[in-house]
Amino acid sequence: MASEYSVGFEPADRLAEDRDSVRRRFWIKLKRVVAKLPFAEDLLAAYYCAFDKETPRHVQAALLGALAYFILPFDFIPDMMPVLGFSDDAAILATAIRLVAGHITPGHREAARAALNRGLDGQH
After folding, report:
1. Tens digit of pLDDT for each residue in 56-105?
2. DSSP state, 6?
3. Cα separation of 105 and 9, whole Å?
4. What would the DSSP string read from start to end of 60-74?
5. Those residues with Cβ within 8 angstroms of residue 44's Cβ, 6 or more apart along the chain or in another chain
6. What is the C-alpha separation between 80 and 3, in angstroms, rounded?
7. Which of 4, 30, 109, 110 is deepest in the core (most CB within 10 A)?
8. Residue 102 in 3-state DSSP?
9. Are 23 and 124 in contact (CB under 8 A)?
10. Sequence-separated (6 or more) residues with CB below 8 Å from residue 118
11. Are 93 and 70 in contact (CB under 8 A)?
């Protein structure tokens, strides 16, 4: 099924299985687009939850899928389009967060706020 929606492109589900690639590519893209993201704090909280060893595996998988979709260069609505560009990323992330909201802790949210306040430097 993955190849049906990703002919010539890297499918999000395959990328989500490569945690190191998600981690590395997430920070590269986030630093490039953070000023345009009204949902940056939620995105970062989801990231910290996904990579928290205390987070259950099924929750990590759901969040890694949403993060993988965010970092893929080819998505349903191109990110460079004004206003609409990140709407699909936001919808995917909002759905994942809604499904696992009880696992995103105040600590994950505080780490997200702290990273944004620091300007995302040194976050790898």
Report:
1. 999 999 899 888 888 876 544 444 444 455 566 677 777 878 888 899 99
2. -
3. 34
4. HHHHHHHHHHHH-SS
5. 30, 111, 112, 115, 116
6. 24
7. 30
8. helix
9. yes
10. none
11. yes
